[in-house]
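Slack export, channel: ligand-projects

TW: morning all. Re-posting the request from yesterday since it got buried. We need the structure predicted with the small molecule present, not the apo form. The ligand is flavin-adenine dinucleotide; the SMILES is in the block with the sequence. No rush, but it would help planning for next week.
GE: picking it up
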Amino acid sequence: MSKTIIVVGAGPAGLSLARGLAGSAHRVVLIEPQGREALADPLPDGREIALTLRSAEILRGLGVWQRIPQDEVYPLREARVKNGASPFALAIGPDKGDALGHMVSNHLIRRALFAAVAEQSNVELHCGRKVVSAKTCPRSVEVALDDGSLLRGDLLVAADSRFSDTRVMLGIDASVERFGHTMMVARIAHPKPHGGVATEWFDHGRTVALLPLAEGMSSLVVTVPDAEAKRIKAMPSLEIESLFAGYLGGQLGQIALVTRPTHYPLAMTYANRFSAPRAVLVGDTAVGMHPVTAHGFNFGLLGANRLAELIAKAPDPGAMRLLRRYALRHRLATLPLYQATLHIVRLFTDERRRARPVRSAVLRLGALPPVRQVMGMLLSGKRAA
Ligand SMILES: Cc1cc2nc3c(=O)[nH]c(=O)nc-3n(C[C@H](O)[C@H](O)[C@H](O)COP(=O)(O)OP(=O)(O)OC[C@H]3O[C@@H](n4cnc5c(N)ncnc54)[C@H](O)[C@@H]3O)c2cc1C
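GE: finished. pasting the full token output, ligand included:
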């Protein structure tokens, strides 16, 4: 018999789950505060997502990859990490094949996901609506929307961001780590080739990364303390361009700012539980990663895919044993990289002098073949498979 799955939030994770349930007999009710037009044709938000090979495979299986313009998918061949002015670079490449993953703009992923979900006959969309209260009972769930309507179902899925109100309504705590830093992302044009290599270096007082896009185009990612980001936000574009050019020191030639930077204050979150009776957390609501290891959406997609596989054909998608199985597997898949990311961010943003030799030692340790191989597998998503 058909059951009702209520998904709160049509971000990339909520949409991925809804798409994974295509062909299921269950009805999917998707609630999202943004209007239908904004979901169907999202504006660029500055995020260039490093997708693992595994994620691309999942998206292909969902019929979503085929909807992303392939001339806007760029290969990520290698990742290099440097510490300050030291010439040593930890280089991580694929263990086989010629790419670690792909670079795709976030709005293109969201657009493709929405286009696929909008065609599903088992999805009911409530756009422009917010969940204001959520209750779960042993046999059903009940959700109230901001227009006063009440929805009933058999499973509640919280996918409403890392600062999820639904998670709070379910009484699930999360550990939250705020860094006091803001990440600024902007596209730059440059004359020298990037070679498909992503480079990240930890300078004193800031972190700078370059992500390879089209020929002569990269995404520049600069992370600085919040107050400094606020000061930069108020600058005219030409001043920002010359400031950023100074950070790069001419390594890609004379750069030109193509977009003004978009600002993202940084926080990592990890929910204490991923499941509760008749409720489950997916995407950033479960695991809110730091973008430095580029795994937030990769984890969200992987988790949504696993959950969909478990519940799509189950007579009762809210059965606790299924939700517990998802929760355990997703925790095992995400916790090691979450903890590693937390330690990396703390170490590489530690401005005390004694942290510098530790950073160099960590990078040299990372360069040892077995460690580098494990990192290559992690970054291309193979370990999580
Ligand atoms: C600068 C940057 C770079 C990144 N780079 C990468 C990368 O390279 N690789 C990678 O894998 N990840 C990356 N990420 C992470 C990735 O963008 C996120 O993990 C992903 O967007 C999370 O998707 P989500 O659907 O879980 O949450 P969100 O995108 O936050 O979506 C949540 C949705 O819930 C809706 N919502 C909120 N409240 C309610 C409510 N009360 N009722 C109903 N709906 C509600 C919101 O409107 C929103 O649509 C990056 C993030 C940033 C900031």
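GE: first-pass observations. The first helix runs from residue 12 to 20. The chain has a mean pLDDT of 91.
TW: perfect, thank you
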